[in-house]
């Protein structure tokens, strides 16, 4: 399946940036632009994952491998040849690891942004809590302002609500409605969070690294120790939360540029 996507840069080194749950490729546009300016030798592909943004919806029974297959097909259709550098935030990092298992020859390196390979406990998943509010919100509203009030009235912050509202679209006589299938995403979220990906890091020859937000909880100290024991060094950005590319963009860019 070919996903909605766009590219930044025209260099020969193919790099795929994969967003997190409920996001779109646009979430990483600023990172791609800054990295491209610092390293013109790269070409960046930023897809909307299956079921996200303007990409086709999630098929029944979709797994991380399903999303990874679609990312690889999209990269090849977009002209990215050879082994890919794959950088993924949150869900995107787990898709990157699944891709490295699915097609080892297609992946040169995996960079994990505040995510680890292990299953994510339900109580630890910030996106799970957001999804609960999203599912409780109405399917449509008169306008964006009205839908924003629905989200903030259920406890979401203004900035987080505004980010989610990027997934609204307008329709005549309807007002605004959600572009994505909330129930399909909820089913996928529960399934994919339980997938085990430690085997990907254990595969000989995989180059992998990780970075975590010091104020986040997705990569524990024990996770970090296990990742490093498998040859995946992990750095910490003390000032950052889960969205490391938003909270510490300059420090993250410096880390990504290290070979």
Automatic annotation (TrEMBL):
Question: What residue ranges carry the coiled-coil annotation?
Answer: none
Q: Where is the AB hydrolase-1 domain?
A: 16-253
* Pfam families xref list: Abhydrolase_6 (PF12697)
Q: Does the keyword Hydrolase apply?
A: yes
Keyword Isomerase recorded:
no
Instruction: Give GO MF terms, alphabetically.
Output: hydrolase activity
Q: Which UniProt keywords apply?
A: Hydrolase
Q: Which InterPro entries match?
A: AB_hydrolase_1, AB_hydrolase_fold, Serine_prot/Carboxylest_S33
Task: Identify its protein family.
Answer: Belongs to the peptidase S33 family.
What protein name applies here? AB hydrolase-1 domain-containing protein
Source organism (scientific name): Melittangium boletus DSM 14713
